[in-house]
Protein 1
Amino acid sequence: MTTKKVRTRFAPSPTGFLHIGGARTTLYNWLFARRHGGTFVLRIEDTDEVRSTDDSVTAILDSVKWLGLDWDEGPVDGKTDKGPHAPYYQMKRVDTYRKYLNQLLDAGKAYKCYCTKEELDEMRRLAQLEKRPPRYDGRCRALTKEQQASQEAAGKKFSIRFKMPTEGVTVVDDQIRGKVQFENNLQQDLVIWKTTDGPTYNFCCVIDDHLMDITHVIRGDEHLSNTPSQIQIYYALGWETPLFAHLSMILGPDGSKLSKRHGATSVLEYRDQGYLPHTMRNYLALLGWSTTDSQQLFTDEELVAKFDLEHCQKNPATFDTVKLNWMNGEYIRATKLDDLIALADPFLAAAGLKGKPGPELKKTVALEHEKFKLLSDIPKLVDFFYKPVEFDPKAFDKVLKAPGAKQVLLDLAETLKDFAPFEDKPLEARIRQFVTDKGLKNGQVFHPIRVACTGRTEGPTLFLMLEVMGRDAVVQRLREAAAKLA
RNA sequence: GGCGCGUUCGUCUAGCGGCCUAGGACGCUGCCCUCUCAAGGCAGAGAUCACGGGUUCAAAUCCCGUACGCGCCA
């Protein structure tokens, strides 16, 4: 076991938003680094010039920041970097890659390949036909200097391939899956430099992980198959390999790889729907990792203290919004009122509830605190305090159109118009007295009040809600509802 | 097609040969609380541990096949 200081990295390609799978990979890298007092590095793998965009970089950095996962080295924003291994954008490191490319070329461990796309397609077609694995046959491996010169004289472009060993096996000693063996002669000679004169992902990745002293490469399952090739590049350069850990994928409810079809996949969408960063950390931590006890809710400190690679799941996990929602509700309930209102600010603003006349938001939100699953639920559940009552048709028909309901509203408006103090307990006592006086049942009075004041059959505890709403508003709403019944 | 990975309640999972008549969490059902909806409390249903063979006194746990799913190569 290495005694080196732990260094992990998350290395996204900026070709889109940070999705749930990437978020979990980031989290695990972060947790592992923090767990071992190590360093967490963020590196942008933007070698795909066509698909990489600045907007994606921004979106990814925003996502990681929102998740609350701070990185020790990496981009600060689109322009500057922090850390001793800067720059952390691969396209700014091309000279470095070129240096090692030349080293491999000089050592005869890589070679120029002049095959065109058409030729490669043909090769593949034939292989399919003959039921052979459709891989590059290595025809340019043994080209002489003269042959190469004539290809180039003919103006042919070339890519550069890495020479995989033709015999033996490469073992990936995976921290999660154990030893995984690959036969070398079944691996093809990987393109490490493109015809367009640029490095490829698999090459840069190796160079950077080595140069940046990465000790643990924790990444998605989809990279496992490329790992033997990468390991051989380490060997060819005379480097020690880091330890690898491949995480299983995250699936959608139908068992296929989580994608747009399944709804939200981008981390930022979860932010915009009103999930708390802590919920995402906790939920994602448990999606593919677990402790031996039955604990579900963890503080960040607990997560950091307990996280390990041993308990990472080998099989893929289905993303379950229902449990996510439960957890978010748990954390919203655990959030102090003032903090909750601050967190909900964008949602309250979007709903136009800020600065509206009416009760203090803090009071109305407090009434429903235990019911919110999402921050975006907050305005939906308290908006009736701040705008004219909109009656739910069913509630209106069932409760207000009930026999006697109109009279109850009218009588109550009279009873309450001068009532003081207009507070929870006194109100309850008075209204219960009203019920008795009229020889009615609780429901015949309580329900109409609620619907008249809120438009709905469900809502906060009644008398406290009336207190918060205030006498004038309550009396007015009772009368308006009665008038509507005319 | 080749190679690789995986398979425990609907979902996330515990389990590393006897403690498993398989435990927990979310969800679901019922009851309690109650002015509604939640929250909370209690109870319950729900998994022949993918299938088939071995190994062993003993297997969800080890080995081998099969099926299915997924990934990579293109």
Note: The first strand of chain A starts at residue 7 and ends at 10.
Protein 2
Amino acid sequence: MAFSNQLNTFPQPGHDHDLCTSEALKIAEERCRSLGLRFTPLRRRVLEIVWAQHGPAGAYDILGKLRDDKQNAAPPTVYRALEFLVKNGFVHKIESLNAFVGCGSSGKNHSGQFLICGKCNQVGELDDTEIAAVIEKKAKRLGFKVARPTVEVLGLCETCDTAANG
Amino acid sequence: MAFSNQLNTFPQPGHDHDLCTSEALKIAEERCRSLGLRFTPLRRRVLEIVWAQHGPAGAYDILGKLRDDKQNAAPPTVYRALEFLVKNGFVHKIESLNAFVGCGSSGKNHSGQFLICGKCNQVGELDDTEIAAVIEKKAKRLGFKVARPTVEVLGLCETCDTAANG
DNA sequence: TTTCTTTATGTTATAATGTAGCATTTATTT
DNA sequence: AAATAAATGCTACATTATAACATAAAGAAA
């Protein structure tokens, strides 16, 4: 399957937003089927909402959106769906923002590396093996066994930087 | 000034805990004086409490301890002191734990790199220029201007790993 | 010194984020 | 069809963090 849009790295201003979402949903659906995971309507809907933002979404933002078509939704509704989506690699939690973003490379490597623009709040996913390798190497040197490495880089994306400084 | 104890990297089981604390306080005091910052009794006490744990401390844990000798302390009391301490590099916030640890290298580089043991909850500070450089390089390649890079590695420290797997 | 100004702290209330626990429903297996 | 397991509904609550305004303390200017 070939996808026309970049699900990785930093999202470009003019990119096709809806296409990202529909591709992500399709990938999740397929992957769940092949793994025997239950991609329920609720989980699907939450994933859709997360992607619709194409930027970090707080759990309560998601809850608000979810309530548009599901009035009885409560915090656990969202948190449980997110738990499933995060556990299975369809969504990442950005710890420094207490927010969630769709994973641009579900199923592949999951290094958990993010570029967070402090201006437009967009998040780019890096998934860089060299970064992962250096972290692994240095940790190992200290006898530390790496389980889940996280890199969250706050800064300024190219678009915002250009807009600000020419 | 030479310090006998390792304020950096992963704390060893037998290390002199109190010495870490007193050294960290001394460093903070000196640095504040030289920079014209106000190292008030409250801020000093909060820093002391953070170091006393020698592991990540939640804001409300700190508040509890603070109340032992300051009954009227409230959340803003602690959060404001922490804000000062973080801003000036004496304390780091571990985003993935919503907790705070004393900075082992106040005043030097502040790469914000942490090894977090999921077993004993100890946190080691890395401060590795190679890791920082790779992140910087890869971000730059995407036109991203790095402001504050954070690396939080969840895993198992040598002590816990040895204890578990021989 | 005395006043002015800034910075820090006190205090109350509330916002934002996240979970526990148990009932009910829906799916899967036997 | 019955039994089991998984997911969701739902209430209540726990944890983390901040807003807003009053007071006090420190530093700068007169």
Note: Residues 38, 40, 42-43, 72-74, 76-77, 80-81, 84, 98 of chain A lie near DNA strand D (CB under 10 Å from a C1').
